[in-house]
Amino acid sequence: MVNGLPNLQLLEGHKNIKKLDSMPAEWIASAFDTDAGRTNYCENHLLGNIPDSIADFKGFYEGRLESLRHRIVDLLAVQATE
């Protein structure tokens, strides 16, 4: 799942390197100075609840996959099929 769409986020070089050095929840906390900034980033990128540990990654991945699927269907104005 590490290279699947729900786990990918395009970032420029330096930001991407910093992100790779920590767990996502730690990175979000350090990358944004305010709760509003963190909330805005998570909402814009459909991140939902970011897990604190790798043990919860599968649920995060599946939830984001569904959120991305809904956004793509809405943007393309098509009917979703299973």
Describe this structure in words.
The protein is mainly alpha-helical. It has one domain. It contains four helices and no strands. It is globular and about 40 Å long. The two termini are 20 Å apart. The relative contact order is 0.14. The model has no long low-confidence stretch (mean pLDDT 82).
Provide a brief overview of the structure.
This protein has one domain (5-76).
Features of the shown structure:
82 residues; mainly alpha; 4 helices; globular
Beta content: under 5%
The beta-strand count equals: 0
Helical amount = 55-70%
Shape: globular
Helix vs. strand class: mainly alpha
Low-confidence spans: none
Cα end-to-end separation: 20 Å
* Secondary-structure element string: HHHH
Average residue-wise pLDDT = 82
How would you sum up the major sheet? none
Radius of gyration: 14 Å
Number of helices: 4
Number of domains: 1
Task: Describe the secondary-structure layout.
Layout: H1 13-20, H2 24-31, H3 35-44, H4 57-76
